[in-house]
Amino acid sequence: MFDTMTFTKTMGALCGALLIFLLGKWAAEELYHTDGPHSAREQAYVIDTGADADTDVGDVAEVDFSLLLAEADPSRGERLWRQCAACHSLEDGRNGTGPHLYGIVGRGKGDVEGYGFSDVFADNPDIWTPENLNAFLENPRGYAPGTKMAYAGMRAVEDRAALIAYLDTVDE
């Protein structure tokens, strides 16, 4: 059933496969290795990406949020609200995983009856101004370390302005 010849053939096949893989590895390193006599060659064609330009990529023009908020479309904010609706409610007094957001603009940061806020908001005397909401929605954990909110944040400032404009119209 299992004789010496079968064992010899199996070991020979494994050693042969290993040899092929090692030779393939060596050939690939020779072709693509960056160290050595051929690595100092200049690239044949360089694509200009503008990285050498005088302008710094990190300099981004700061946009006045109050202007963006004044121009924001609340109907667009209503569409963006859908991602918030998983945890929050717009109905006054109806809390979900998060507190209700009815009248959030101008309300105190921890002023919702029946909701257990995290320590960062529980005794906070500040109010939710549009600017505070903008900073919180951009990066909740960066704005309020220790918050219960698991949302990663809304990156586009125009989206944040539209959402805040919509939330400001809900309690009118």
From TrEMBL:
Instruction: Please list the residue ranges annotated as the Cytochrome c domain.
Output: 72-171
Concerning InterPro entries, the annotation shows: Cyt_c-like_dom (IPR009056), Cyt_c-like_dom_sf (IPR036909), Cyt_c_1A/1B (IPR002327)
User: Gene3D superfamilies attached here?
Assistant: Cytochrome c-like domain (1.10.760.10)
Keywords assigned: Electron transport, Heme, Iron, Metal-binding, Transport
Alphabetized SUPFAM superfamilies for the sequence: Cytochrome c (SSF46626)
Protein name listed in UniProt: C-type cytochrome
What species was this sequence derived from?
Plastorhodobacter daqingensis
